[in-house]
Automatic annotation (TrEMBL):
InterPro entries: Gfo/Idh/MocA-like_OxRdtase_N (IPR000683), Gfo/Idh/MocA_Oxidoreductases (IPR051450), GFO_IDH_MocA-like_dom (IPR055170), NAD(P)-bd_dom_sf (IPR036291). It comes from Prauserella shujinwangii. The lineage of its organism: Bacteria, Bacillati, Actinomycetota, Actinomycetes, Pseudonocardiales. It holds the Pfam family GFO_IDH_MocA_C3. Residues 129-238 form the GFO/IDH/MocA-like oxidoreductase domain. Gene3D superfamilies: Dihydrodipicolinate Reductase, domain 2 (3.30.360.10), NAD(P)-binding Rossmann-like Domain (3.40.50.720). This is Putative dehydrogenase. Residues 6-120 form the Gfo/Idh/MocA-like oxidoreductase N-terminal domain. It comes from the Bacteria. GO terms for molecular function: nucleotide binding.
Length: 328
């Protein structure tokens, strides 16, 4: 350990917890000093570190910061304990299981004067970071639509929330962040086809405050895995594939024609296609570096608890807008 390193504790040693442990151990300025999980350590994350069974024991280990990777239903209980103890905390997304619980977390961290962040990791995907910069620079001109597709098989790790709060929250957050505008209306249809207690498929449309319309297809019922964001504007369309971190631009073409009936149609034509060469750093590593910098007061490029709460509120609007009887 280097003098001045932040002492980090990790609670929740499941699929995401093991990745957090690996990255915390790799990032400069952080030292993983203790881990906790009431159900044990299935992936052998602890190594030679003490393995605790509760958040209280983790706090007693003398930590400066924590990663909360427990199931969503436990985010409130664990987060409130960490806030009360003055521990800066990165909470896996979504912020909580309900808006009410999210509100209590926001208030507790504010009252304690400690940093809280939500792990909406897609913000740190290099394809989306490049896309946001290009959108902000006006490369698309006026932006018309943001559409996302997030589909794949059911992950055995998720049991306490449905696909809207687990997966669609990624798309809600990244869309508002890309557009730098909040949702003002949403309409969704959900269905449950797998026999589990929560919805496993959603189709949603929305509108942002700046007039951009949105479309989101999210499910756990597809045999192919897809993570695609398409932004369409007056100069063409960007396609970001966050599985491969590739960003491609499809430009509107300019085609001259002497055919009057075609020339009179003011549509778009196919133009040049460009795939950008971008530096591909691991999003989770960037997320932890940004959280470290926020704790040290160097930077504040994190997903704040307030932003996480807005995303959760929009997700709940997805569910409440679904027609009665269509979400069961």
């Amino acid at each position: 350990m280097n003098v001045g390193d932040l002492r980090v504790g990790l609670i929740g040693l499941g699929m995401m917890g093991r990745h957090h442990a690996r990255v915390v151990r790799e990032v400069d300025g952080l030292e993983l000093v203790a881990v906790a999980d009431a159900t044990g350590d299935p992936h052998g994350v602890a190594g030679d570190l003490p393995l605790f069974g509760s958040v209280a024991e983790l706090i007693d280990a003398g930590i400066d910061a924590a990663v909360c990777a427990v199931p969503t239903g436990m985010h409130e209980e664990v987060g409130l304990a960490l806030a009360e103890a003055g521990v800066h905390t990165l909470i896996e997304k979504p912020i909580a299981h309900s808006v009410e619980a999210g509100n209590r977390l926001v208030e507790a961290f504010a009252a304690g004067g400690v940093i809280g962040a939500v792990g909406h990791i897609e913000r740190y995907n290099p394809a989306l970071q490049s896309l946001r910069d290009r959108m902000a620079a006006g490369e698309l001109g006026e932006i018309y639509q943001i559409a996302t597709r997030r589909q794949g098989p059911f992950p055995a790790r998720i049991a306490d929330v449905g696909v809207v709060k687990d997966l669609a929250t990624h798309d809600i957050d990244l869309t508002a962040w890309l557009a730098q505008s909040e949702y003002v209306s949403v309409t969704a249809q959900v269905t449950t086809r797998s026999g589990r207690p929560h919805e496993d498929m959603v189709a949603a449309t929305g509108r942002l405050a700046n007039g951009i319309i949105t479309n989101h297809l999210v499910n756990w019922l597809s045999p192919m895995k897809e993570r695609v964001t398409v932004v369409t504007g007056e100069r063409g369309a960007f396609v970001a594939d966050t599985l491969t971190a590739d960003l491609t631009f499809y430009a509107n073409g300019v085609v001259n024609t002497e055919w009057e009936s075609v020339a009179n149609f003011r549509g778009v034509a196919e133009g040049d296609v460009t795939r950008f060469a971008i530096t591909k750093r691991e999003p989770l590593r960037v997320e932890h570096e940004k959280f470290r910098d926020a704790v040290l007061g160097v930077d504040k490029d994190i997903v704040t608890l307030e932003e996480g709460l807005r995303t959760l509120r929009t997700a709940e609007h997805f569910l409440s807008s679904a027609a009665p009887g269509e979400n069961g």
